[in-house]
Amino acid sequence: MTDSDRPILIAPSLLSCDFARIGEEVARVEAGGADWLHVDVMDGHFVPNLTIGPPIVKAIHAAARIPLDVHLMISEPVRYAEAFVDAGAHVLTFHWEVTGAAGTGAAIEAIRATGVPAVGISVNPDTPVEPLEPFLDSLDLILVMSVFPGFGGQKFIPEVLTKVRRLREMGFEGLIEMDGGVAPATIADCAAAGTDAFVAGSAIFGSEDVAATMKEMRRLAAEGRQTAAI
Ligand SMILES: O=C(CO)[C@H](O)[C@H](O)COP(=O)(O)O
Is the ipTM of this complex over 0.90? Predict the structure, then answer.
């Protein structure tokens, strides 16, 4: 895939939405041009925060028209994968820090066996990407965390951009997603490094006009990618 063929996918993180009005929030970002809805699942064990489980994902899916990008920040991703796929996950991403070199192949296989359209793996900001090399051909997506997972509204860690470039050098052809502190001020650098999917919670839901913010982020991502190609 050449740079110009690569998608720019804007994925608002529902972690920052008004949970009391989640259906309206979904409709608001869909109408504003979102490509995916990013859903953060936290278990209070892998990360020090608790969020939502399959019943809420099912409710979001019923309200949504665009794909659900479900990020499992949980210690037992394989155990719960099928429940999240049945609830409507389109992309299901688990953490390398949970499975490691010994368990990642089996986890990918088990999650793929649920029939989910896309399987992803995520790496924390301080986790290198080189150990992912044996698994690159069996992954649809790699989510590079640009904050330590657990909470929205944190500051983007620019050092992770080298890992996006490294994954492309290693020949990864799938989607690369960035999550954490992605905003108009940081998205161009993410795109220039080789990112395709951009998760943003506070930057989108905290803005006055979600449609205008997503449009501007898409423009800045395209500009960043073009600048990098020159
Ligand atoms: O995975 C997450 C936190 O673990 C969130 O998706 C992420 O932090 C998005 O929030 P923000 O854009 O406000 O940083």
Answer: yes
